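TA notes, week 10

Several of you asked for a full example with nothing omitted. So below is the full record: structure tokens for the whole chain, then the designed sequence directly under it. When grading your own attempts, check the secondary structure regions first.
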């Protein structure tokens, strides 16, 4: 069995970095481009699973069965309601006030397509925010960090200052639960001869 061609169906730089941290250095970035088709009535767990499957299926359709396609979708949920990316600074402030002093959920659906197999899992992490003052919210929004992130924050950035505890996978909150991904690799028998790891320099260019 030769080296597996690995495709990350995401342009997220954070997911790319997590794969590299896992020891997977040779992969291509081919983001899904199709319109997401979903039922807004779905609970967050089903939603992220379906979206990750859609992304993986789209990219796998242009690959060969021997290629390993990895796709993921991450959402922030409070009281069962999903927080997407803020529309503007006012919307970001609203989301941060909603998260302030509370525990919310970060859910990531991970889908893999490989040799005619298709598997998906959902990982859930509980994230607790400290109470935020209006001044802290204004400062954080002023950094620009919240504006392109679901739930208006990035745990790997300055928002870490406001998060005293998490229960579950940290990498899940960043966007790709590595322990869950490793489990899927084993279940789908894509780890033979260590062909996934340390294959050389990363391919596919820089994600944006």
């Amino acid at each position: 069995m030769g080296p597996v061609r690995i495709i990350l169906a995401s342009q997220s730089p954070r997911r790319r970095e997590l794969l590299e941290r896992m020891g997977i250095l040779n992969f291509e970035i081919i983001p899904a481009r199709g319109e997401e088709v979903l039922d807004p009535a779905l609970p967050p767990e089903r939603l992220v699973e379906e979206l990750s499957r859609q992304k993986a299926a789209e990219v796998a359709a242009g690959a060969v069965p021997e290629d390993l396609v990895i796709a993921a979708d991450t959402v922030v949920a409070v009281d069962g309601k999903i927080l997407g990316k803020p529309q503007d600074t006012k919307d970001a402030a609203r989301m941060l006030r909603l998260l302030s002093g509370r525990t919310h959920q970060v859910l990531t659906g991970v889908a893999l397509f490989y040799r005619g197999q298709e598997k998906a899992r959902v990982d859930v992490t509980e994230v607790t925010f400290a109470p935020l003052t209006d001044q802290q919210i204004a400062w954080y929004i002023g950094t620009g960090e919240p504006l392109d992130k679901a739930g208006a924050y990035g745990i790997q950035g300055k928002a870490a200052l406001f998060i005293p505890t998490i229960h579950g996978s940290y990498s899940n909150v960043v966007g790709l639960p590595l322990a869950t991904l490793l489990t899927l690799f084993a279940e789908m028998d894509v780890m033979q001869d260590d062909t996934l790891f340390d294959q050389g320099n990363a391919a596919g260019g820089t994600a944006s």
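DSSP finds six helices and seven strands in the chain. Use that as a sanity check on your answer.
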